[in-house]
Each structure stands twice: as C-alpha cells, then as structure tokens.
Design a protein that fits this description.
CATH architecture of the largest domain: Sandwich
Distance between the termini: 121 Å
Number of strands: 32
Helix content: under 10%
Largest sheet: 17 strands, mixed
Structural class: mainly beta
Radius of gyration: 36 Å
CATH class of the largest domain: Mainly Beta
Number of domains: 3
Low-confidence stretches: 333-337
Strand content: over 45%
Length: about 425
C-alpha cells in the first residue's frame, strides 16, 4: 500500500523554526516578567507593617503613687463617679482626684521624684504626669481646690522639665529643682504660698508674675491679686528632750515632761505640735504659745514626735523644725542574756528622702532597735517605726531584736538615702 504522507518541503522547516523561536521568546519574556514582578513585590509591594519593631529604649513609666496613707484618704479616678479608699497599689494619672478626711494625710510620689504631702481636709487633682518622648522633658502638675499641700522637688533630668501647682487664685506656680514649700487654700478663697528652700515662679489669676526665693511667702486673695512678699522666720532649733531620748518615770501618768527650743529672732509666738506620728495628722498637742518651752503632764508610755514653728508679729508662720522623737517608759524592765534569739521579720523597709519607715514583727515583749534607735513594739510584737537619718548615700541599716530571755536576732539591710 502506497504511503499517503506528503513529501516535506523547505517551507515546512522554516515554519517549524519560527514556531520554536516564538515559543522560546514567549517563555523568556514570561520568565523576565515573573522575575521583575518578584523583585518589585519584594521592594515595593510588601504591605507596610503598622507596628514595626523598632529598637528603642523602654519608655519611662509616667505615673504617681501613694507612698504613705494615714486615715481616711479617698480617690476618684478619671472617668468614674465613685470615691474609693486609697491603696498603696493604686496608680494615679491625669485628672484623678485625691481627698483627705479629717485627721488624714497622704504622701504621693511622682515618677520624677517630686514628693507631695497632702494635709488633712484637702482636695487635689492630678493634672499632669508625663515625659516628652523626643526631648525627655518631664512635667508633673496638680491643682489644689482646698486644704494644704507641702512638697519637695528633686533634680530635673533635663532643662525644661517642670513641677507646677495651681489653685483657684494661682494660675501657675512653677517650682525649681530642690525646692521645698507649701501651698494652702483657705476657706475665704485666699491662697498662701510659702517657700522654705529653692525658688518658684508665680503667675496669679490676675496675670501678675512674681518670683519667690527661700524663706519667702506670698498671699493671693480671692480675686487673684497678690499681696506683698513676706520674709519667713527661721525654723526653731529643738533643745530638750534631745532626739531619740528615752525618758523613764516611776509613774508616767503623774510626771511632767519639758519641751524646750531656742528662741527665734523676730518671733512673738510659737506653734507647737506633738503626735504619735511624724506626719502630725492627729496631734495630741497643737497650740500656739509665747514662751520657748512647754510642759506636758501625764503622757502615757510610748513614742512621741514633736516640732515647732515660729510666728512673726503679723502671725505669719515660718517653717517647722525637723521633728524630734522621745520615748516615755516606766522605770524597771526585763533583762538577761544568752537566750534563744527571738523571731525578727521585716515586712517593709522604705526610704522617703531622709525618713526611714520600718515595719515588721518580733516576739511580744522584745526590744527592737534600728541603728541603735529604740522602736516601739506593740503588745503583739508588731512594730511600725519612722526614723530620721542624718547622712545621705548608700548605707547599712542594723535591725536588732532582743528577746525577754536576752537572746538577740540581728539583720542588716542596705538602703540609699537622698536629701
């Protein structure tokens, strides 16, 4: 049978060549396009990560916290309508309100080291607690609606950082670094500003601008108009009993304890306060007298703190002295030695400026000392002591408990004291 296949012509070879060549070209072009698309996608087509991981330092935690709460202290956080009891674990932020009741005090420490002591029957609002991410400038601010606040500022981390206070009649009080002062808003609406150390700039509601330095005071009336500057008297120097004195009486209820201090030049009277607490929020004695001494009768056994401020002829009160502490004990006591060491548990050891608070427990009847200063031990063995330290920097605190059988338990704890 004869083959039906046609003989191959030269034109057929040419067609095959062109067909193969076009296919190769298409493949190469597609390959180039694919590679180009991949490159484009790699560099330009990836979606932008809205939260890129950037290696930056951790931001500063810009908050304020309670470092001491005495009595009925309430807080209303921003966005809520309920007042709740203050707690050391609380974080205070912008627009939070803090209110102290009668006989109550609170100490608030801002993230930049500014310490605010809120006195009894006061209401304040946290207005700012922030740090600029770019400049590192820090700003803390609060408004005093009523009552009294004492404050201490630390060193500024960078120029331009600010500590600001306002009242109904003071638009802005800007405190310099290492400044101690007090601001009180009277029921009449007047604002009293006192600067004991450092400097401040004051802008009143009436637009007046003034500077206050150390030992200067200013009253701003309810209309926002400033009165003349006043010079504050020096703080009295306490003489007797000396700080950390233990006074022994056969019968404390019938004994008389004398408190005395050096007279202050220019003073006409003195404000004397005695309390169980160094915060003086519930004073046993709170009186003004002309003499530079006072006799206290019938004090019970225990630990007492006292301080004095001088008043001038216009009744302007200067800075209080640093507090001193004395202890009243009944004559006689337990002794012995060589017994089993008593338990000694330190629950808290906190330093605020140069005031050390130590809280803990030991056996009932034991004697506890901190750096050889005796602390008051309750009937159940618990103790909560405030101690004034005289030197700054890193140091060791020696806590010693001596049991009723003479046994001794001693602990040493490192602390850092800043003024």
């Amino acid at each position: 049978m004869a083959s039906q296949r046609k003989p191959r012509r030269p034109e057929d070879d040419l067609v095959d060549w062109f067909t193969i060549s076009y296919k190769s070209i298409y493949i190469v072009v597609l390959l180039v396009l694919a590679i180009g698309g991949a490159v484009y996608y790699h560099y330009f087509g990836k979606p932008i990560n809205p939260n890129p991981v950037i290696d930056v330092p951790a931001p500063t935690v810009t908050t304020a916290r309670f470092t001491s709460i005495e009595g009925n202290v309430r807080v209303k956080t921003v966005g809520t309508f309920e007042w709740v009891s203050a707690d050391p674990s609380m974080v205070l932020r912008k627009s939070d309100l803090v209110r102290t009741g009668t006989g109550a005090t609170a100490e608030i420490t801002f993230f930049d080291g500014t310490v605010v002591h809120v006195r009894p029957d006061s209401l304040i609002t946290i207005e700012d607690t922030s740090e600029d991410f770019a400049t590192k400038r820090r700003r803390v601010a609060w408004h005093i609606s009523s009552g009294e606040v004492n404050f201490q500022t630390g060193k500024k981390n960078v120029p331009g950082s600010a500590t600001e206070i306002s009242t109904p009649t003071v638009q802005r009080l800007t405190a310099g670094e290492l400044t101690d002062g007090g601001v009180r808003v009277d029921q009449s609406g007047d604002s009293d500003v006192k600067i004991y150390r450092g400097s401040t700039q004051v802008v009143t509601k009436a637009g007046e601008k003034l500077s206050l330095g150390a030992s200067e005071a200013l009253k701003v009336d309810a209309a926002g108009k400033a009165g003349p500057k006043q010079v504050l008297l020096d703080a009295p120097v306490l003489q007797a009993p000396p700080h950390q004195t233990e006074i022994s009486y056969p019968d404390p209820s019938r004994a008389t304890t004398l408190l005395a201090w050096k007279p202050v030049v220019g003073s006409v009277s003195y404000h004397v306060m005695v309390d169980y607490s160094p915060y003086f929020n519930r004073p046993l004695v709170d009186q003004v007298r002309k003499d530079s001494s006072v006799e206290l009768r019938g004090l019970e056994t225990g630990k007492f703190y006292w301080r004095v401020a001088a008043l001038d002829k216009d009744g302007v009160e200067g800075a209080f002295s640093a507090f001193a502490r004395f202890t009243i004990v009944r004559q006689g006591g337990a002794g012995g030695g060589g017994g089993t060491p008593p338990p000694l548990v330190i629950e808290a050891l906190d330093v605020r400026t140069n005031i050390l608070q130590i809280k803990g427990r030991t056996e009932p009847g034991a004697t506890v000392t901190v750096n050889d200063q005796r602390v008051d031990v309750q009937g159940d063995g618990s103790f909560n002591e405030f101690i004034q330290l005289d030197k700054g920097g890193r140091q060791l605190v020696v806590i010693r408990s001596t049991g009723i059988n003479g046994g001794v338990n001693e602990q040493k704890r490192p602390i850092v004291v800043t003024f």
